[in-house]
């Protein structure tokens, strides 16, 4: 909005009254489409925007996806956030939506889109905030998934550093931009944040895929109750070199809960593995308990759980961090939770679309 509105009566409302009004709006509108009012309030003027940024909590604490930066922040701790993916097979495009009801298919709230691009030696899935603009040069570009030639190993790249304390790792796919266009505090490029691999099925018999996912940007200790996963707090546009204030959230309460001991501790990275399916004698197929969220048997269906630090205990039923399954010809559910983000979950699910018969 124009800064001239700062002189309007909206900006001159008493801060105590304004905060009370915005608090009530935030607490009463937990889901879309009503949640758009919260975003509209952040666009009135700078004063309103600053207060909204203080009030709106990240998905880990609120279970709400409000601003685009929420897509890069860990999901809720207590439950899976329900989403779904629509596939356009003709254009090799995939659309991620936030479920607005308990139904397996509804209109949903659009979150992300991805398009498949074949290369001579690999395959890229460009991930964008804009359903109609999915080029690498787009301002809406936020990352990508890249596979090897066989489609058995994948790397997830983030367009920004995953968090403030992350170490920069050079990538052959990093794109250099004019340094005058980008703030040096937020370098733009492709930063590898996770790796997904599928075991080759050398016997040739069809069966459940075996997945192994390493989240380099999240320590293994993040799944423990007293620890907090690192998170992005702002989103910068590469071609403009500015940070969208609407995309930011106030993470003071999150940063304060991260002790100095955690910052200095060198932990192993988070490792996710798919839960083993069980053979159903009567149905003559491999089965997983998706609690009604999956209705069609498919080799693409999976549930990922964190590998225990000691490497011995088996994941429990309620330890599922990401589940993905088919409910229609081109419709799939995607449910995720802390410590991964919607962006990371979406990229992992895209790898399931890309794998070849060598893994099945």
Automatic annotation (TrEMBL):
Gene3D superfamilies: Tubby Protein, Chain A (3.20.90.10). It comes from the Eukaryota. GO terms for biological process: regulation of DNA-templated transcription. PROSITE patterns: TUB_1 (PS01200). It holds the Pfam family Tub. Residues 71-355 form the Tubby C-terminal domain. Belongs to the TUB family. PANTHER family: TUBBY-LIKE F-BOX PROTEIN 9 (PTHR16517:SF158), TUBBY-RELATED (PTHR16517). This is Tubby C-terminal domain-containing protein. It comes from Vigna unguiculata (Cowpea). The lineage of its organism: Eukaryota, Viridiplantae, Streptophyta, Embryophyta, Tracheophyta.
